[in-house]
Amino acid sequence: MGLAVGESQERWSHRSAFILAAIGSAIGLGNIWRFPYVCYKYGGGAFLIPYLIALFTTGIPLMILEFSLGHKMNAAAPTAFAKVKKKYEWIGWFALGVSFVITCYYAVIMGWAANFLKFSLTQEWGQTYAETKEFFNGDFLGLSKSVGHFGSIKGWIVLALVFCWIWILASVWEGAKTVSKVVYVTVLVPWAILIIFMIRGLTLPGAMEGLRYYLTPDFSALLNLEVWAAAYTQAFFSLTLGFGVMIAYASFLPRKTDLVNNAIIICLADAATAFVSGIVVFSTLGFYAGQESKAVADVVASGPGLAFVTYPAIINALPAPRLFGALFFLMLLTLGIDSAFSLVEAVSAGILNKWKLSRKKVNFGIASIALVIGLVFCTGSGLYWLDIVDRFMNNFGLIIVALLECVVLGYFYNLEELRQYANSNSEIKVGRWWNFLIKIVTPLVLLVLLTYEIIDRIKGSYGDYPRWAEFVGGWLVLLLIAVVALLMARKKGARD
Amino acid sequence: MPISAIIVLGVTVVVLFGGLSYCCAKAVLHKDNEGIKDTH
User: Fold this and answer.
1) Nearest CA to A481 among A489, A469, A492?
2) Domain map (residue ranges) of chain A
3) Chain B contact for A158, CB < 8 A?
4) If residue A259 lies in a helix (H) or strand (E), which one and from where to where?
5) How far is B19 from A249, CA to CA, in rounded Å?
6) What is chain B's alpha carbon radius of gyration, rounded to the nearest angstrom?
7) 3-state DSSP call for residue A65?
8) Contact A210, A284 (CB under 8 A)
């Protein structure tokens, strides 16, 4: 049967290509620098209980929902929502708007990793922790004293940013056809490096001490509501849900495909990668703490601080530091690239579904605009802006999209039909409990997380940044995305 | 490492990797694992 205008024309080369692409999109820098720290902070091994519960009650059900929607409507997010009802199309554009903004700074972080890959060969980042910290914040970023002091744009970061965008563009050049080939490298290579690091980490002196911090359960943490909120947040954010990526990726699948099993594989692979990353991070932190005669709690870190400050210091202490330094930053780069190009692919698929345009021109346009916007994050205050925008895109943008997804599909669409659709060619069948999770549990959890965040923002600005900076980097960006989403939805497409 | 940490490690490995292996085995053996065939 021929494909109509407004439907995805692309197809994955093979089921494994789709699974790897979706895993690659889900697995990102957060698996390395966020999960281990969150696990350690919220009860150690005990955190894994709420995390796994969150994965099975929110992560997997939402993944099945996005797959079913994309596959049934055979379209990326905007058109998929438009097929539910025209007035919901803006939700899809809003999701893609959030994706686009995230791509703008995600590529900059990849640019940092590319620079550090080069530095790992010369180890110019210094020897001690104090030196690596000074190198990252001072020499490398030229971090200004406050968010309002932009300073100058760092040439070497821009150069790496351009390189990353060329790489991203090359990866999505012919859409799913190119992605189908690229993911075999960009998913399998970081996994291989992660295994090398795990073996290396576990054979280092002090590794067990690190693991003790990571895995020893503090069961009293289970009574803390904050721990459960952290578990649901982690399970939700880690899976690239609410970006429109999984909707687009599912639309590229052939008609007869096992949606449920694919969703479970992708979610479990993401969780397993995060868990193994924790072993890698904490075994090396245990070793480093021993070398520095400190407690693991004194060296533990998360976010860019872990990757670009603590890890270079750890790498210095390892035998063959140049090799392990290069491997570590190559792992970060390859972990990041498939998340980045999946976001571009989602945006591009959304545009191509609606208008008859050249894919290459659309991709080039997305890359050019994102590159220019990304320059803000290459300035002296770029790290501050990145922090603010990231917080708002995740804690507001994504949660709003996922919440709307659940409400619209749960209450204004025949959710039961979607469940039966997901089951129609799946070996593992989802029961009516899925409807309950999508209609009640997931929206409730997302609403609680959103309320928490709103109360937090009323109490004080994020990260003690000035209110004006929070407004510009957070609320204004969200407002702009909403306006653009509404305008895009109102514009006539080729299928109207 | 305390015994509780070892139990946590064991249970997580079984749930995550056991589940993953089970689902992957099902995917490999799935009768409709045709991949590239477009049946639109």
Assistant:
1) A489
2) 15-490
3) no
4) helix A259-291
5) 23
6) 17
7) helix
8) yes
Q: Say which DSSP state A245 is in.
A: H
pLDDT in 10s for each residue of chain B, 40 residues? 788 888 988 999 999 999 999 999 988 887 555 444 444 3
Residues 6+ apart with CB under 8 A from A424: none
Q: Does the structure show a pLDDT above 80 at A79?
A: yes
Radius of gyration of chain A (CA): 22
Q: Which of B32, B34, B37 to mutate to test the interface with A (most CBs of A within 10 A)?
A: B32
What are the start-end ranges of the H helices in A375-476? 382-392, 399-411, 415-424, 433-436, 442-459, 467-470
CATH 1.20.1740 fits A15-490, yes or no: yes
Tell me, what's the ipTM?
Answer: 0.84
- Supply A465's token pair: 């940044």
The CA distance from A2 to A228, in Å, is 47
Q: Which residues of A touch B11 (CB under 8 A)?
A: 48
Its pTM stands at: 0.92
What is the Cα–Cα distance from A357 to A349, expressed in whole angstroms? 11
* Closest CA relative to residue A419, chosen from A399, A442, A438, A403: A438
Alpha-carbon distance A454 to A391, whole Å?
A: 12
How many Å apart are CA A76 and CA A459, to the nearest integer?
A: 38
Q: Which amino acid is at A251?
A: S
What is the rounded distance in angstroms from the CA atom of residue A270 to the CA atom of residue A238? 8
Helix, strand, or coil here: A86?
helix
User: How far is A107 from A213, CA to CA, in rounded Å?
Assistant: 32
Task: Give the count of beta carbons closer than 10 Å to the beta carbon of residue A425.
Answer: 18
For residue A258, give the nearest of B5, B32, B37 by CB distance.
B32
Question: Considering CB atoms only, which of B1, B17, B27 is closest to A258?
Answer: B27
Q: How far apart are the first and last CA of chain B?
A: 55
